[in-house]
Amino acid sequence: MDPEIPVNVVDLGLVYGVNVNPKNNVDIKMTMTTRGCPLHDTLVSDVKRYVSKINGIGNINVEIVWDPPWSIEKMDPVAREKLGFGKPKLRFQIDYEKSQPLREGKIIKQEDGSLILTNGKGQGFMVNDAIVSFWDSCDGTRTINQLTDHFSTKLEMPRQQVEQEVVQLVQQLLEADLLKA
Hints:
This protein is of the alpha+beta class. It has two domains: 15-82, Fe-S cluster assembly (FSCA) (GMP Synthetase, Chain A, domain 3), CATH 3.30.300; 102-180, Coenzyme PQQ synthesis protein D (PqqD) (Arc Repressor Mutant, subunit A, Orthogonal Bundle). Helix content is 31%, strand content 18%. It contains five helices and eight strands. It has helices at 40-51, 77-82, 129-137, 144-155, 159-175; strands at residues 15-20, 26-30, 60-64, 102-103, 106-109, 115-118, 124-127, 179-180. It has a three-stranded mixed β-sheet, with helices on one face. It has a three-stranded antiparallel β-sheet with strand order 5-6-7. A hairpin with a 5-residue loop joins strand 1 and strand 2 (26-30). It is globular. Mean pLDDT is 83; it is low at 87-91.
């Protein structure tokens, strides 16, 4: 699953090709939604981890390519519609200065090391360490702006880029009942 969008990397159109040689070594060509993707390493390690679960697989090589560049059109049409691309989608407004998101639910570590956040309805969402770190930082004491500043410093990334990611993640976690505004 993409850590920022609740869709798997295949349906997102990030995987451009897979080649398995006679020794069962796997070469995967994939891309990211943006060149500055802060979760680049996480996605690559997740792909390697999940492919390695297939019996008989040898070495796994993931090559990140930028040509052709990724676009929304590369997404599976069902996933694109699920995310509301191409049509208006009602989203709630968040006051960045006042809203202090509070995490809800719990984290479960699977036997294979993967992480799942579950909400009060028992729904589970596969996540990575970066999302858990963000979710955990939502303790009801920081505003959206303070969370943005914190992660901008922590990730050493421009605030504007981090703000967009923080707002998207807050909205997704709110919609999944994993945060309370």
